[in-house]
Amino acid sequence: MTRDDGVVLQDVCKSFSGAAGSVDVLRGVSIKLAGGEAAAITGPSGSGKSTLLHLLGGLDRPTSGSITIHGRRPADMTPRELSRFRNRTIGFVFQDHHLLPQYSVLENVLLPTYALGRPAAAAQGRATGLLEDVGMGHRLHHRPAELSGGERQRTAVARALMNGPRLLLCDEPTGSLDSANAEAVGQLLLDMHRREGNILVVVTHNPNLAARFRRRFQLVEGRCSAA
Ligand SMILES: Nc1ncnc2c1ncn2[C@@H]1O[C@H](COP(=O)(O)OP(=O)(O)OP(=O)(O)O)[C@@H](O)[C@H]1O
Ligand SMILES: [Mg+2]
Fold first, then answer.
1. Nearest-atom index, ligand 1, CA of 23
2. Ligand 1 surroundings by CB, under 6 angstroms
3. pLDDT at res. 97
4. How far apart are CA 75 and CA 187, in angstroms?
């Protein structure tokens, strides 16, 4: 592990203000993850889990405090630097797959590579390989609407891994699946995490999934503690 290889949140606060007033969602969250670590984040609905994941993924900025990802601070980047950084360094898996309905499974997995300008043949090879790894090798040319929920989510995992992100963020990745598929997708995330050596952060309401992570955190009323 190099010195910069990790994720550090220091006293991160996030408030939202709108017509209805101001809400303090995160009230001083500090977390340190070393390269290659996997962490589960649990907590009641509304406790700020998705907000925290958005901050980690550079989709939003903290109100105060700092976030460092592999030695870099997304909050200091220009929009252009940030989108490049996100595309290369961070993968996302959401509760609802977010696949584009008009594209095939293979095309959906290839999408993140377009901005990188990599040679098409190499990208095709990696996409096909990843889809085989997640058990979707037989569905390359199907559209998302033709897949089961578990298959869509496995495709979303392949897409998130496509650019070899060093940080993979998952928000309720098994939340819309039945227990057998939830188990399979949870196992897949952990297997791929071990193989790719990335940092994996999974927000989950599923206690069986959370129990399989070495690092566990609980968010309650905007504060975070080891669980
Ligand atoms: N853009 C926003 N503007 C105002 N308030 C927001 C915004 N985004 C989130 N919130 C508020 O922040 C709080 C935390 O929301 P968040 O989505 O992070 O919760 P969560 O822990 O992910 O919940 P769930 O388990 O239901 O997904 C909620 O009270 C929500 O209303
Ligand atoms: Mg949420």
1. 5
2. 16, 18, 23, 25, 43, 45-51
3. 84
4. 33
Structural domains in the chain, sorted by start: 6-17+31-226 (3.40.50.300)
Distance 23 CA to ligand 1 centre (A): 9
What is the distance of C-alpha 212 from the center of its chain? 17
Instruction: For residue 160, give the H/E element and its range.
Output: helix 149-161
Cα of 55 from ligand 1 centre, angstroms: 12
> To which residue do tokens 């360094």 refer?
89
Q: Report the candidate in 22, 4, 32 with the shortest Cα–Cα distance to residue 217.
A: 32
Neighbours of 117 (CB within 10 A): 8
| Dist. CA 56–CA 61, nearest whole Å | 9
CA–centroid distance, residue 198 to ligand 1 (Å): 27
What number does the ligand 1 atom closest to the CA of 47 have?
Answer: 21
CA of 218 to the centre of ligand 2 (A): 13
Residue 31 pairs in a beta bridge with 9
Is 0.85 surpassed by the pTM of this model? yes
pLDDT, averaged per 10 consecutive residues of the chain (227 residues), comes to: 78 94 96 96 95 95 96 95 94 92 97 83 94 95 96 95 96 92 92 95 95 96 92
